[in-house]
Amino acid sequence: MSDLPNLRKRIAAEFSVPGRTLGQRRASATIPDDDPHSLEPDDGFDVPKERYPALKPALAGAGLLCSAAILGTGIDAGFRLLSIGLAIAGVTGAALLLRDWYRSSLAPVAVQGGIRAEKASDKQWERSETSQLLSTIHDALGDIAIIREPGGKIVQASSVFCRLTGWLKPEGMTCEALGIEFEPASGPNHYRVRIVTDTGVKIFDWHDVIAREPASGAFMLHSIARDVTEENRIARESEEARRRAENASQAKSRLLATVSHEIRTPLSGILGMSHLIGQTRLTGEQKNYLAGMRQSGHALVQLVDDLLDFSSIEAGRFQLRPAPEPLRETIESVVEMLSHRAHEKGIEIGATVTADVPGLMDFDAARLRQVLFNVIGNAVKFTHAGGVLVSASVERETIVIRIDDSGPGMSPQEQERVFDEFEQAGGIAQRAGGSGLGLAISRHIMEEYGGSLTVSSVPGKGSTFEIRFPALGCDLAAAARARKGVLAGSRVLVMAPAGPASRALSATIRTLGGLCDCVETVEDAQAAAVRALSTSAPLTDIIVDHRHAGQLRRLLVQMPGLERQKLRKTYLVNPEERNGRPINQMDGYHAWLIRPLREKSLVEVLRGRMKGMEVRDAINDNRPMLREVPILRDRPAEGGVLLAEDDPINAFMVRSVLERAGHSVRVVGDFEALAAALFDAPAATRSAPELIITDLNMPGGDGFSMLQRLREDERRSGQGPVPVIVLTSDSQPDTRRNLMAAGASAVLLKPADPKALTAEIDRLLDR
């Protein structure tokens, strides 16, 4: 059959002529008789275009003969001959028609039979060619390809299979007979197969597919398998490496927890004893030595905290616990806590918060305080002239806290490294010292919160660190309305050197709805006063920096009319410069303000509701700090305190602090002695302590079990719960939560602040 080849040739001939359109190809579609690509059938069956081409001449000749016979023999005889001739012609025509019908019925059958045979041959060739192609592809990829009967006997196998099994002709055998092991894998018809070869055991990913054979109609099992030995080896090594890394991380966490406890315990003794020394009569030189010892101790505590935080972040155990907290007070407390460092270096520090920052919002106050302490403390550390300004605002429902300093600045390369672990940006940072962990931990904390910590800097012009995090759990519009009119009607003249402190003060006054003129010289002050007199908003207050007190006196001499306006005069000082004189002896000043300013104190002074030194909020930077000496009680506390502490120095320090606070203290050195004091004495003679202070880790037991036993004993006896304060070196939040669940009344981190400890005792005893 040649129709298909002729068609292909014809199509190729048509489309091989360039530049011809579709219409031109249609116009030339008539195929000439001598066209070598004609689609005329040439398969051996002659089918004439006109049947019986000699029939018409024969009929015409027969008609002439009949006419001649009739004329020659007469009409009667001629008609007889005509009848006979017609009969013969009819028989002959019928025979011809029968032969034509018979031939026409046989020709299509032969043609169709030839077509079927050719199609079957083509399909067989295509199947064979496809099978060979697939076999070649699998061999090139190193895959196994076999065909098996439903009973498992191999019908056909690829060369890869033959090479791996060592059988050149595995047909007729089963895979099991060849030593192939099948293990079920992830799904049906999916197996993990082990084949032992000359080079060792190979692992294959094996898939089976059941399909019907077109030729025979029988079902066959087609199997494809790929070598995954190397992938399995890599996966095993990766899993082993992951397991080793997890074990190393756990070991590191245990080590850090142990080191933390072992370091905090002697630190608690060092700082506690320094606190007791500070209560004795010391010379100026001795006080300096003591201050250096305390500063070094606090630096070591901070390093331990940073190491523990870094370990938690690295191990993925770090969690934030947001709650409604006042953001402005949090920022002010950190700035206030770091102010003494800044003032010791002769630089200024100040903070301002815009009106749209809400009073309460959801955030983890302890962690944000830690970030602020690290970033602001870093700015104070590297700034040697000028100062540090902290400003908070809202941008598109995001809290933005900027820390601007006038330090040495950083190059682009140093900015890239400043947030890396154990990195310090350049020689200046290295000279200043530090572990290089604070900023790295701070960035991790902000990323965990869904925010960011970034830096921009120019060498020689200072740096700006920017903290961003979402404003959650607050009404920004209501916050802005609540604060914008707090100081409405106030016009303040600020006489202070230019710097972060004066900028923060003037910005805060304007934020709260007041008017403010900030000046440095007497001349500028006179000009501002004259401008105020010429408007409907006269001066109401003058705030004078202690360094400009002499200029205020000159101003009042040159402008005596200011005295008649009854202006409220406020004296602005650092805590270090306050000399302790009563406010009425300070050149006519009406109030004090201590830098760095708190907004609440500023409002109270400018509204005339507070005089004298402002009452500071308790500073809590999430780190134990030693502060002023606890006030002695007039009489000892009743009941006494039972102290369980195995370290003699810490026991002596805590006992001394509590006794100076008026408590009677009994000390035991381990959990066995504590249990004996609480449970072994007869109930009639047992003297229950008023309060228990215990270390979490001591010989003879553990704090959790002791707490549970104590609470269970109280429930059985019907006694009220005795307050229990647990001292621990473990700063993990889970430890605190578990202790509180076990029955602790309070948990304090070592080294314990004496003031915080006595305050906690007073709270628990409701004093």
Automatic annotation (TrEMBL):
Catalysed conversion reaction: ATP + protein L-histidine = ADP + protein N-phospho-L-histidine
An example Gene Ontology molecular-function term: phosphorelay sensor kinase activity
Domain Histidine kinase: 258-473
Residue numbers of 4-aspartylphosphate PTMs: D695
Coiled-coil ranges (or none): 228-258
Family matches, as SUPFAM superfamilies: ATPase domain of HSP90 chaperone/DNA topoisomerase II/histidine kinase (SSF55874), CheY-like (SSF52172), Homodimeric domain of signal transducing histidine kinase (SSF47384)
PROSITE patterns named among the record's database cross-references: HIS_KIN, RESPONSE_REGULATORY
Start and end residues of each stretch annotated as Disordered: 23-42
N-terminal signal peptide: none
InterPro entries linked to this entry: CheY-like_superfamily, HATPase_C_sf, HATPase_dom, His_kinase_dom, HisK_dim/P_dom, HisK_dim/P_sf, Sig_transdc_His_kin-like_C, Sig_transdc_resp-reg_receiver
Catalytic class of the enzyme: transferase
Pfam families: HATPase_c (PF02518), HisKA (PF00512), Response_reg (PF00072)
Keyword Metal-binding: no
PANTHER family per the UniProt record, alphabetical: HYBRID SIGNAL TRANSDUCTION HISTIDINE KINASE J
Identification of the protein by name: histidine kinase
Originating organism: Pararhizobium polonicum
Source taxonomy: Bacteria, Pseudomonadati, Pseudomonadota, Alphaproteobacteria, Hyphomicrobiales
